[in-house]
């Protein structure tokens, strides 16, 4: 086979690049919902199944925010803005960071010693095609802050997986937690603030709680999180795959 046959690309039409030259499509998956809905459990499962990085949004809270929540004080909008922006920026940074590669070692035939190939000589590693973030994103305006990640970035798509369950179920789950700063009474506070995704936000074509025949395509996948953890994880994975 000639070199020309391997490297040749069909000509572009009207200035449109050939599909192979377009940027790799990347996805941000935000696992949302009130305390106790299973965000971490679902995110870890998706991380394992999809083999993409996972970020725990709570780790980006300021010490002041954590202290307020541990004392039972709900966060204000002012407390959340910088946190939401940091979550968004961390997702973008992760999408543009090469996947870490293990050092390449070579062993001499005349010696038992091995040498590690310098990083400058190792093959470049691809960047991940997705990232998972846990973030309560209770209100639409909070979700809108995260949506900015895809503004002016046609190669980035953002999706929300909203884990829906009753206040009573989540209260019981939070009570059963050990050594967690989020207390059970904060669940009620979060439900008071909650603006569950609806209307144009919902991607009802991929959602597990789809309204039959509607076929609406927003960016929020709603998953019933009231059942057993493994069941919820499978439903979430199915919703994610349905959105791809």
- Rounded to the nearest angstrom, the radius of gyration is 22 Å
The name of the CATH topology is Rossmann fold
What's the helix-strand series?
HEHEHHEEEHEHHEH
Q: Could you state the CATH homologous superfamily? A: P-loop containing nucleotide triphosphate hydrolases
* Broad shape: globular
Q: Given this structure, which CATH class is correct?
A: Alpha Beta
Oligomer: single chain
From the N-terminal CA to the C-terminal CA, the straight-line distance is 36 Å
- How much of the residues is beta strand, in percent? 5-15%
The secondary structure category is alpha/beta
Tally of DSSP β-strands: 7
Q: Please give the domain count.
A: 1
Average pLDDT, all residues? 79
Tell me what the CATH architecture is.
3-Layer(aba) Sandwich
The parts where pLDDT drops under 50 for at least 5 residues are 1-13, 15-21, 102-120, 207-216
